[in-house]
Amino acid sequence: MDDFEDPRDGAGTSGEDTTEQPSEFGASEQASSSNESSTVDESQSIEDMLLEFDQQEGLIRDRSLLDPNHIVEEDRIVGRDRQLQEVTKMLRVALGDNRPPNLFLYGPSGTGKSLITKAVCKNISKICETRDIRFGTIEVNCQDLDTLGVAVYELASRAADEADVAVEVPKHGVATKEKWDELYRIVNENFDSAVFVLDELDMLVGRRDKQDPAFSRLLYQLSRAGANNDLTAHISVVAISNDTKMMESVGSRALSSFTPEDVHFDDYDANQLQSILRRRQDAFYEGVLDEDVIPLAAAFAAQTHGDARKAIDLMRVAGELAEREGDESVREEHVREAQDKVEKNRVLEVVRGISTQKKLCLYATAAVASETDDESARSTTGYRVYQFLTDAIEADQYHQETYVNKMKEMTTYSLVDFERRSHGPSSGMFLEFQFGERPETILETLREDSRIDMVSPDEVSSVVKAQVRNET
Ligand SMILES: Nc1ncnc2c1ncn2[C@@H]1O[C@H](COP(=O)(O)OP(=O)(O)OP(=O)(O)O)[C@@H](O)[C@H]1O
């Protein structure tokens, strides 16, 4: 955040929100609808409109380059040489007659973990074809898998897709053991060598036992099957996670058979993100991207933790906004609009599901952060603003400790981060919260809750200012 100029400088970050955000999709929808209303021809039939849109020149030439799930060619991968080399070195064993090691790839989201794994596996597969080795990449994302049984079925089903055969057990109503046997059958009959890619593995917690999460059982069973010949193919397991501490939750039983090689993926800085975007600028027709677009999208994405997915997403949304508004080029203002929209949607997703009390804690803390120079909020000040808010809407009031715990829970949604601090003996200890998104975006989003909207933002702001002045 502090190693480049805040891209929003000069664009009003001080909290004096001027635009009325019309809907959950933010200002962009409003802009496009007001644009439409000025050009609408009421006599036009739907068919005419469709034909007209069809003839309109778009700005985006190749949408796949802006799709985060598309595996880009190797020459578009930038800034991950070390990781590419490590993963290639370890998995290349699959090209011979040996079992490659298991891997644990960890680092924040959007730092290229899945991309590098897919790119290396794709190349291994290409070489294996020329050597008559039947190699398969069996990939699952564990995010939506809630039990071990579901995960094993999913693996069997992906293995079957990769081998172009059918799964012969039903998805429901059979024991997990049968699903394992089916997975072994498919792999053994169709592959000499296979890499299991378990993306977002830490999400596979299961319902049974928090001490023995499903991901731990999955790792144990898979690596054991490799060792005791249930799986005759040479298999390697690549576990991918954002949670650097995931391996600490893997039970000792699983750990002793899994024993992975670790590969760390660190954050991208704004320069690396710029290079990533530049290698994809041919997603647009020549000359339609203004020169400020890429540096600004990269700077915005670098503000959180340098997420390439976010940078690519910003460039795509900016392009789509420009297209929808009938503009001839993608400009800086489209990126700013896109940033608002992307941030707001993410915050909305989280905020929609939390209780009013948590919203009040978050609102109070974000209100403080929006008034401080470094956009941080002390828990002690946040709590006083929280008390003001709960009094104002006559809601129950938590003790300070509960308020702090509720705020700490917000770290799981990556909305806030915190550090324990003390500003000298007179101020005592407090937590200092930092936001992953602009505090103003969080405030705007929370004001969509009618109870919170009962309190005037100006009133909150003057309470906050007074409290911040009182900080020692
Ligand atoms: N070094 C890079 N060069 C080019 N594109 C990249 C690079 N790193 C990431 N990307 C792109 O960013 C997007 C996200 O990358 P990827 O899915 O690999 O992230 P991840 O670390 O696996 O994140 P998550 O943990 O959220 O799944 C993809 O579209 C990918 O193509």
From TrEMBL:
Keyword DNA repair applies: no
Compositionally biased spans, kind Low complexity: 27-43
UniProt xrefs under Pfam families: AAA_16, Cdc6_lid, WHD_Cdc6
Location of the region described as Disordered in the Swiss-Prot/TrEMBL record: 1-44
Entry binding sites for ATP: 111-115, 268, 280
A GO molecular-function descriptor: ATP binding
Lineage top rank: taxon: Archaea
Keywords: ATP-binding, DNA replication, Nucleotide-binding
GO annotation, biological process: DNA replication
Signal sequence range: none
Domain AAA+ ATPase: 99-269
NCBIfam families given in the database record: orc1/cdc6 family replication initiation protein
Cited function: Involved in regulation of DNA replication.
PANTHER family registered for this protein in UniProt: CELL DIVISION CONTROL PROTEIN 6-RELATED, ORC1-TYPE DNA REPLICATION PROTEIN
Similarity remark: Belongs to the CDC6/cdc18 family.
Protein name: ORC1-type DNA replication protein
Protein's organism: Natrinema altunense (strain JCM 12890 / CGMCC 1.3731 / AJ2)
